[in-house]
Amino acid sequence: MNQPPVSKKSSPVFPWLIMLLMSTVTFLGILSELMPSGVLPQMMADLNISEVQTGNLVGYYAIASAIFAIPLISMTMRFNRKYLLLILLLGFAISNIVAGLLHDHSIIIILRVFGGICAGVMWPMIAAYGMRLVSEKDHGKAIAVIMAGNTLGISIGMPVMTSIGNTYGWRTEFVGLGVVIFIIAIISLFGLPSLPGEKLTKNASPFALLRIPSVLIVLVLTLLGVMAHYGVYVYITSLVDEIQLEGGIESALLLFGIGSLISVLVAIKYTDQHLRVLTIAMFGLLILSMAVFLLFGRLTGMGHVAFFIWGLSFGPLVTLLQAAVSRQVDTAKDVATSVQSSVFNLSIMIATSVAGLLLGNYSPMGLVYFAIALAVPGMIISFFAKKALGK
Q1: Does any domain span residue 8?
Q2: Of 179, 198, 217, which residue sits at a domain end?
Q3: 144 and 187 assigned to the same domain
Q4: Any domain includes 1
Q5: Chain segment 122-168, per-residue pLDDT in tens
Q6: What stretches pass through the bilayer (predicted)?
Q7: Are 221 and 321 a contacting pair, CB within 8 Å?
Q8: Which pLDDT score is estimated for 314?
């Protein structure tokens, strides 16, 4: 399709401060989603619930994001982008602060669902919001900078938050994050530009998008890429134990985070010009890292190399997929990215379920084979998807 004309609101100079503020929002957004996974034992003991019930606090959040993203994005298309984002930030802050103060598991579930609904709207809308603030040639860069917060939140923010939770308690972690989100909302009130919403047309509806072959290709790549990565990531501790990695999970996360940071910087610079090459490389590096785990993971130093390569692959995942789907439409990019975001969250849920079954019947290396089996077709499809991803 032809690319959309440059928005009157877009700037010829890349607005780094605004994009970094938006990146902070995605950084805090992913922490809000994943926090319970780092303090499961504490929450189990304090709330007197099982491990499955505690783990579901992440699952309910993701399910709510997946279910409500498309309808709520469509309903809020006309809303001013800045004020919609402020409302969502307040929702994140309230859900975390109140959850950290309560002892009723049922109400905490409701708060997690509420937070997930806010996330379902925030993830697709913030990327589209950012793209409308820059010229067309910088759309990929805008997505890369904004979504860098997601990657860094997983690879760097989560270990830090988990350390805070283990040291000062999970309630302090939840309330503290909520307060920080509230502060960022205040900064955003003064720091983000006001931007009107858009009119939702029949041609830009979710169902119309699903009739575009290039959109379907991007959604398939999303399914394959997310399942391959998260099927292993959710049980990364088991993989560390399996290969007896020197330095344990802390060492693995550090190298994974360094690799992610490097690839995010590469994505920021090259996504607009080389989207297809980067997507092929993302799948290829994932296959390489998993092969190193299989063949040399227990050799001194090789496991560390594998985690670094895996981080290189993981870093640009969100950026590349959102940039790809946004290229397929001229208007209502929020709707396009909401469809992709829903598939992303559903892929995480599927990956978690399938990986749990594999782990229950095989060693953690079964998850590595699972990742390779998904990444190979992903790389092949990316190679031939010249219309969807560009030359």
Answers
A1: no
A2: 198
A3: yes
A4: no
A5: 988 898 899 889 988 888 889 889 988 988 888 788 888 888 988 89
A6: 12-31, 58-76, 83-103, 109-130, 142-162, 174-195, 215-236, 248-268, 275-296, 302-321, 342-360, 366-385
A7: yes
A8: 92
Q: At what angle do helices 81-101 and 16-38 cross, to 10 degrees?
A: 30
Which among 48, 32, 184, 31 has a CA at the least distance from the CA of 111?
Answer: 32
Q: Provide the residue type at 246 as one letter.
A: E
Q: How far apart are CA 174 and CA 33, in angstroms?
A: 11
Task: Give Cβ neighbours of residue 361 (< 8 Å, ≥ 6 apart).
Answer: none
Secondary structure class of 134 (helix, strand, coil): strand
Which segments in the chain show pLDDT lower than 50? 1-9
Q: How far apart are CA 310 and CA 84, in angstroms?
A: 35
**Same structural domain for residues 173 and 266?**
no
Residues whose CB falls within 8 Å of the CB of residue 136, separated by 6 or more in sequence, listed in order: 3, 4, 5, 6, 10
Burial class from Cβ neighbours inside 10 Å (0-12, 13-18, 19+) for residue 169 reads middle
Q: What is the DSSP secondary structure assignment for residue 315, as one 8-state letter?
A: T
Residue 309 lies in domain: 202-391
Q: Which residues contact 253 (CB under 8 A, 6 or more apart)?
A: 155, 158, 159, 236
Query: Are both 174 and 231 inside the same structural domain?
Result: no
Boundary of a domain, candidates 151, 181, 198: 198
Q: Is residue 119 situated within a structural domain?
A: yes
Tokens read off for 22: 């938006």
pLDDT at 229: 93
Q: What is the CATH number of the domain that holds 63?
A: 1.20.1250.20
CB 116 within 8 A of CB 36: no
Q: Are residues 183 and 211 in the same domain?
A: no
Q: Which of 183, 21, 178, 161 is nearest to 92 (CA)?
A: 178
Enter the tokens of residue 303.
């496991």
pTM value is 0.80
Same domain, 183 and 210: no
Asked if the structure places residue 356 within a domain, the reply is yes
Q: Say how many C-beta atoms besides its own lie within 10 A of residue 272's C-beta.
A: 20
Do 130 and 156 fall into the same domain? yes
